[in-house]
Design brief:
By secondary structure, the chain is of the alpha+beta class. It has helices at 3-15, 57-67, 90-97, 119-122; strands at 19-22, 25-36, 41-49, 73-80, 85-86, 107-109, 116-118. The N and C termini lie far apart (30 Å).
Length: 128
């Protein structure tokens, strides 16, 4: 893992904070860090709910990025509370693909061994 990916990993680990918000909401067991094309890093944590209204850490970080006026992502990394890097789910992959032209070039760290793939490789049949 190079220095930039390590920085994203550390940013994600800094916001890991698993805890219960209420009897229906548990947050923070997964965190994500994204690097934008402008060089900014945004983080987010998962929001697990007792219904389908929760949000993955990746989409939380992407939402924060959008809130700050950005839309172009360079790199994405998500990590579980035990330190293991994990690939984004299908909903997060779809959300990223819908960010527009060039989204297929987003680099995603897939594991702690440094395996990286472009989003387009994870969405091979996507209707561009």
């Amino acid at each position: 893992m190079n220095e930039l990916w390590e920085k994203l990993y550390n940013c994600a680990m800094e916001v890991i904070n698993p805890h219960e918000i209420s009897s229906n909401i548990y947050v923070g067991s997964v965190a994500a860090a994204i690097l934008t094309k402008k060089g900014n890093i945004y983080t987010g944590v998962c929001i697990d709910t007792s219904c389908s209204l929760g949000m993955c850490a990746e989409r939380n970080a992407l939402s924060t990025m959008i809130t700050h006026g950005e839309k172009e992502v360079d790199k994405v990394l998500a990590v579980y509370q035990d330190g293991n890097i994990m690939a984004p789910c299908g909903a997060c992959r779809e959300f990223m693909m819908q960010l527009g032209e060039g989204a297929g070039d987003i680099e995603i760290m897939l594991d702690n061994n440094g395996k990286v793939k472009k989003l387009a490789e994870l969405m091979p049949e996507y209707p561009y």
